[in-house]
Amino acid sequence: MSAPQLDVDFVQSAVPVNGGSKSAAIGDLTAGEEAAVAGDLGRSTRRRRIWIWGARIATLVIILGGWQLLTSAKIIDPFFWGQPSGIVKQLNAWVQHGTTYGSIWEQIWVTFKEAVLGFLLGVAAGVIAGVLLGMFRFLADVASPYIKIANAIPRIVLGSLFTVALGLGTPSKVALASVLVFFVVFFNAFQGVREVDRNLLANARVLGASKPAIIRHVVVPSALVWIIASLHVAFGMAIIGAIVGEFLGAQKGLGLVIATAQNNFNPNGVFAAIFIIAVLALTAEGLIGLLERRLLSWRPQVAVMAAGIFCTLLCLVE
Predict the structure, then answer these.
(1) Which of 62, 101, 256, 267 is an S-S bond match for 82, by CB 3.0 to 4.6 Å?
(2) Which residues contact 82 (CB under 8 A, 6 or more apart)?
(3) What share of the chain is helix, strand, coil (3-state, %, to 5)?
(4) What is the arithmetic mean of pLDDT over 265-269?
(5) Which residue has the higher pLDDT, 82 or 202?
(6) Where do the domains of the chain lie?
(7) Are 188 and 311 in contact (CB under 8 A)?
(8) Is 1.10.3720.10 the CATH classification of the domain at 84-317?
């Protein structure tokens, strides 16, 4: 009995008589410390966000302000490079009176529709081809030289062929946009399938999963981080395809508006259209970011960053 009594005496000597209230106090102190740490972290995060946005706004003010001052002082010729005030006037004129080809909103809608359709078709084709070739080595070996040849061709020049074959309407722009999107998504989907954990595949086969079930429940979810990462670049490619297609020949669209401004020596019109395109791209980027956070919240952030870096390097190589 002495040993247990010794343990009790030791514990009682370590904790005061009113141990219950003291334990509660310790618990409250721990919770308070956790709340303080969380508060400090939140304030630090908010301060960092404020600094980032402040730096972004300052950078924009410096660029636009310097541009306006240099063109007003004729150090930079506004005839060739335009100026921010002229861009604002051009945007206002388009909103008030429209463009040569109709309402500016109609031009935006035409280009956006072409980009979205090309984006959806290119993503669907790229995911299907990437998953199939990643899963079936024989297909990958057969298609490899043809994919390399197609990837080596400057795909922008296909726009001329699509314009001749499909006309000046929407189909030729959608075709060019989908081709540009396809290769970005394909290579990422292919790499994502190749990065799937082989242990997961082996376990699925041992449990009797069929090939379609493995693709649906193991391969696609595992490769999703690579596929989603490619979408950030893919929509930009879709817009490029739509704009270039309109440059080559169109009846409406922002690319045609830019080409007309270029032919009329109107740099403010070119920059105004570029601004509209940038707003479209940033809006799509924000929506894709929301989709990414919703679908990939279960994946480690490192894996998402690695896929994004791979996609960026791939586009730089292209």
Answers:
(1) 267
(2) 71, 267, 268, 270, 271
(3) 85, 0, 15
(4) 94
(5) 82
(6) 20-72, 84-317
(7) yes
(8) yes
